[in-house]
Amino acid sequence: MSKRQANVDDDLVQGTKTVLGAEARRHQPVETNGMGEFEDAWEDEIEEESDVEEDDTMDQENGEGMEVDEPTEEEQEKELRMYLPGQPLEEGEVLEADQSVYVMLHNLDVRLPFLSFDVLNDTLGDERKNFPATAYVAAGTSVPGVRDNEVVVMKLSNLHKTQQEDEDDEEDDPQALDEDPVLEHRSIPHNGCVNRIRVMPQTGKHLASTWSESGKVYIYDLDPYVASLDVPGTQLPKQYKPLAIHNHGREEGYAMDWSSLDAGKLLTGDNAGLIYHSTITPQGVVTTDSAAFREHKSSVEDLQWSPNERTVFASCSADQTVKIWDTRTKKRSAVGIHASNSDVNVITWNKKAGYLLASGHDDGTFSVWDLRTFKSGGQPSPVASFKWHNAPITSIEWHPTEESVLAVSGADDQLSMWDLSVEPDTEEEGRLSSNGVEVPPQLLFVHQGQNDIKELHWHKQIPGCVLSTSNSGFNIFKTISV
User: Which residues, 6 or more positions from 418, have their beta carbon under 8 angstroms from its beta carbon?
Assistant: First the structure.
């Protein structure tokens, strides 16, 4: 079972910077208000150019100018080459992100790592494609052994386009990077580590649920905290006390999901294999069914409501199974399959093609299932399965509007994007790199540079925008591939 706990050391607490994508660490931070800091993607380059110009001027004044041999194209190709995950770096080599493949790439060095986060719906509109962008996020800190953790509500604004293919791009593109991104935040005390946080998807109300290491599930009303980020002077509760669900006893958990069809419907699953169904009313009253869904033989790792059937949900477990349930029958699941020979860590239900479910496993494999082939007593085969990651899959999520696209993260410091509509060439299953690594044709993009990626989410209102959290920082980016 993958517990996905955040590791905290002195360097992380002090805010040691991480690289962006596959970029070398050479950027100065942009100061913020204490929660963390954005890295400036271009400041050092400007300073370095200024230093070179000053040195050249002094040399010319002293009559010490000298000719410099420019590197040939062949030498430049040797210096810069494509890196594929798993390849060893030679002494003196560093990874550097190719900025031309990122439309936007920003890194936030947080004061404390987030094990889990979720994207908040906002009123800025759907299908937003213009820059600078703004995103609202709810996250939870996870410092083991520390009682006072936090739920953090963040507003990330002034997120400019960072793509620069040549020196004239910034002048030609008014949306390109010209100002520093801005981070504003509000913190709410949380009792124990935040194992997972999920936000109710319906608009008009920002309710967030958290799984605590204490075994309790808390419900937070984030509305006043979100409002305070937009409206100066908004009054915040002096001593906020969240609602709590106690049915799990002292057994902690990670699995949690809100229904997208019925506001206030919440599922929670614990490490004892029990799943509880709760309802939160608009008046703030929580009711939880006394009977649990109990069939898993080990911890419940993830839960997903059906996107088109109100009473149906899926669960996955360290017992290597995926099960489909109906809330009207708690005695047994409707159907269950053996999905892997290792723990099934995460699942995601396709919002556009409701018959597709994807699962991520502890052996680094992820599989896509056609639910129409699930039958009682049978064992279906996945319609697709990929072994690209070489460590446990930690997060997986379908694109909110493109039914064939999904993103996957692993404990191998990779975040991969896939398009399953791409059909492999019958003569050549994958593309072979110069180093003999086979690259599946469905693989669109690999984002690197974060240490131990914990979770990812697509931003539903900014097409192609991905957010990811890790032990070493928080990234928000958009690639040219999606």
Answer: 386, 405, 406, 407, 408, 440, 442, 443, 444
